[in-house]
């Protein structure tokens, strides 16, 4: 059980708002981990609980992308980033605290469900992670690891990259060209 619940769901189940506030005080048995989202535990949230909390906060159309989506789809060798990366529809205007990156998109990815989480398919998740990686060596490692694992190919990554926004993709394109020559 991930113990993450929206405060509105607690209220709908009959828990008064003042009880939620009381239990979420410092030293209490619960904690607010995002606005309107409660962890029914006083222990620090796990990465999975943080993922569920971010999704509860962002709404039903949000999708996990980047390294967290790749981890959930079997690529556990990459270190988790400091922020949880979610995609949300372009029409959504939600902002989030520093530890969650909410990115609006007009091109929603194909969704894969794993352990109850809506995830961007591996090619899109890989590119979303690569676009936000500023270190060229770590970006190269990310892309090559995803390709070597069989989650995606250089061709599918290139096709997805060409279909999306071109801004800020020069390093990713160069890395994909290099990987293409190294793998052929």
From TrEMBL:
Classification of source organism: Bacteria, Bacillati, Actinomycetota, Actinomycetes, Pseudonocardiales
Protein name: Uncharacterized protein
């Amino acid at each position: 059980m991930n113990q993450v619940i929206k405060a509105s769901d607690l209220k709908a189940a009959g828990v008064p708002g003042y009880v939620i506030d009381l239990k979420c005080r410092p030293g209490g048995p619960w904690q607010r981990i995002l606005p309107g989202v409660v962890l029914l535990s006083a222990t620090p949230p796990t990465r999975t609980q943080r993922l569920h909390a971010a999704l509860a906060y962002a709404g039903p159309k949000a999708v996990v992308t980047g390294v967290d989506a790749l981890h959930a789809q079997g690529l556990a060798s990459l270190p988790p980033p400091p922020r949880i990366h979610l995609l949300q529809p372009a029409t959504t205007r939600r902002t989030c605290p520093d530890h969650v990156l909410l990115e609006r998109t007009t091109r929603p990815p194909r969704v894969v469900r794993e352990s109850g989480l809506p995830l961007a398919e591996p090619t899109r998740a890989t590119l979303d992670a690569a676009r936000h990686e500023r270190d060229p060596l770590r970006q190269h490692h990310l892309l090559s690891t995803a390709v070597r694992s069989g989650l995606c190919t250089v061709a599918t990554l290139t096709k997805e990259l060409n279909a999306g926004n071109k801004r800020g993709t020069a390093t990713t394109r160069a890395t994909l060209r290099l990987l293409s020559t190294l793998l052929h």
